[in-house]
Design the sequence.
């Protein structure tokens, strides 16, 4: 049974642009007020907050750099002070540096782990402790069922976040649910054009790339769900079913 999230407050990390922005608009369509976390996209965060306010939604941009411990460790506290409450945490922010098994370094692995896995866990733990009830949704990657030979540190970090999703779901039960969405080919990485994903469409059984709204729909479903926890929804046109990187040689 879905619960209403009208009047609730959601913190979306990396919420100013791309999938985070679509998630903000989808949650707002349910009547949820939005804390738009950003790091560098301050202008986009302000513009989105204005757009949400024009729809009758309360919205607050909030900055934090997840490579700086003092910034992410205080984010939940600052969100609660800013908005006066918190019900939903969407761990969407992520880095995606290009590196292979030949070029990856321990420094890069640690950076990926800190931004993509440790911070979602630290925010989740602070959320569970300070709020004590609600829903957490983590963003994974449908490639988890195969290998990502060209984003190795990122790939490690998302594997860890999948594990942490299950551990948090158990630790924070029964009052906080923790679930995840695993997107497939949705948007090209920042700086790349559509050809980046177009050339990979042949790996997708549904033969098209997804839209940020497809991911946002799944996040809204999990945020409203009363009885799902520790679950991962793949939103990837079936790509993980035929994950081609399992049978391709490492680059
Ligand atoms: N795009 C896809 O097709 C795809 C596929 C599989 C999985 N995913 C996952 O889905 C989620 C959203 O994807 P996306 O492509 O929309 O993400 P994105 O644009 O690559 O990144 C989202 C946001 O993360 C924030 N961020 C990066 N480094 C940060 C740091 N050090 N501190 C705080 N925030 C930081 C940035 O915020 P600012 O702009 O404010 O700096 C950025 O806008 C990610 O977790 C991604 O791994 C996406």
Sequence:
């Amino acid at each position: 049974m879905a619960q209403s999230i009208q009047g609730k407050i959601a913190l979306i990390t990396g919420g100013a642009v791309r999938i985070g922005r679509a998630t903000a608009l989808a949650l707002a369509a349910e009547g949820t007020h939005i804390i738009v976390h950003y790091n560098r996209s301050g202008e986009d965060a302000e513009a989105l907050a204005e757009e949400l306010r024009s729809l009758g939604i309360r919205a607050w941009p909030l900055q934090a750099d997840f490579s700086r411990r003092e910034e992410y460790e205080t984010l939940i506290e600052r969100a609660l002070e800013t908005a006066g409450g918190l019900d939903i945490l969407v761990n969407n922010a992520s880095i995606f540096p290009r590196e292979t098994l030949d070029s990856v370094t321990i420094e890069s692995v640690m950076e990926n782990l800190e931004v993509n896995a440790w911070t979602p866990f630290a925010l989740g733990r602070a959320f569970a402790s300070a709020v004590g009830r609600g829903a957490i949704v983590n963003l994974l990657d449908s490639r988890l069922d195969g290998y990502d030979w060209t984003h190795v540190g990122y790939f490690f970090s998302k594997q860890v976040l999948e594990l942490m999703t299950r551990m948090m779901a158990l630790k924070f039960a029964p009052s906080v649910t923790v679930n995840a969405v695993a997107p497939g080919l949705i948007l090209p990485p920042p700086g790349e054009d559509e050809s980046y994903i177009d050339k990979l469409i042949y790996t997708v059984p549904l033969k098209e790339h997804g839209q940020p709204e497809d991911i946002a729909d799944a996040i809204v479903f999990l945020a409203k769900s009363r009885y799902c926890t520790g679950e991962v929804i793949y939103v990837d046109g079936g790509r993980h079913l035929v994950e081609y990187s399992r049978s391709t040689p490492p680059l």
About this structure: The domain at 9-246 is CATH 3.40.50.720 (Rossmann fold). The chain has a mean pLDDT of 97. Strands lie at 9-12, 33-38, 59-63, 88-91, 134-139, 176-183, 232-235.
